[in-house]
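Its record is set out here:
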Amino acid sequence: MFTKKGNPDLLVFTTVIVLLSIGIIMVFSASSVMGISDFRDPFHYVKRQSLWAVVGLFAMFFLARIDYRIYKALALPGILLSYVLLVLVLIIGQDIGGAKRWIDLGFFNLQPSEISKLAMVNFVAVYIANKREKLRLFWIGLCPILVILGLKFGLIMLEPDFGTAVAMSFTILVVLFAGGAHLGQLAGLGLAAIPGLMFLVFQKPYRMRRIMAFRDPWADPADTGWNIIQSLLAIGSGGLFGLGLGNSRQKFSYLPEHHTDFIFAILSEELGFIGAFMVAFLFFIFAWRGLRIALNAPDLYGTLLAIGITSMIGFQAMLNMGVVTGSLPVTGIPLPFISYGGASLMMSLASVGILLNISRQSKT
């Protein structure tokens, strides 16, 4: 059960610790004003984030010692549990801003979609490792995965959480490609998905407004374009070296979600291009080392699990930074290790623990 050989990838570990440290600092800086306003405590949000960071680090250290092969037996129970939680959140979940994404457990808000992403990655890694020779056969190889993914996508969209659904789907497609799925079939699926995505966009007026705001945020600067305009103002105000830690102007109720989805804008405002580039570079290092761990994993299952975890975190970071910089339409997805949010932080750190265990058993 416990891994007795090898050392974890030091660069992945160091990168994650640095990102987490930056995140704790930025959560305090971005949320202090709101903490005073809402709770008369500038440390309210950072205390909660720090608590979950400690819990997440404990999970990361613990999972880094557990042989990752044990998760093979958890693939089917994990996927079934994730389905139950995704249905349950639609029934008893907290309605926040018209979305049901969290289950209130009293001491913690459980976010089933975060659990669902890791469960899906693990299930697909096990599936391919056991049936790789059938993967290139569409109906008996690829189709079962697509059905399972489609059901998950639909349940997450009912919350609704478009960003998480897209991030999960992209991650699974990467794992399928790495596992040897037919490139032509994957390309065909990508093309076939375009009309479906367009339908989902046109189905909800607010999604269509986000697309229009992405094209020209100044067409409606007081409503749909507000978030991206304020985000760009924050980034532009930071210049090369930033306004200084704690000196953000946009956190004074100008930029919505400034401690969660748009915290990268506050970071850019206070630490400038240099700080923003350093964070982006740290995610690049994480992705590079994660892929290196995957290439040197002792078996196919380890390779695919490492690729899935690396893609899951890396793509989410890229998507968040793309939204914040106006390169992608606005969608609610946090920046891993940086944004405020206990569920996302814990699952990200737990996933890194699994990745570190794979690195401990590397072939080199």
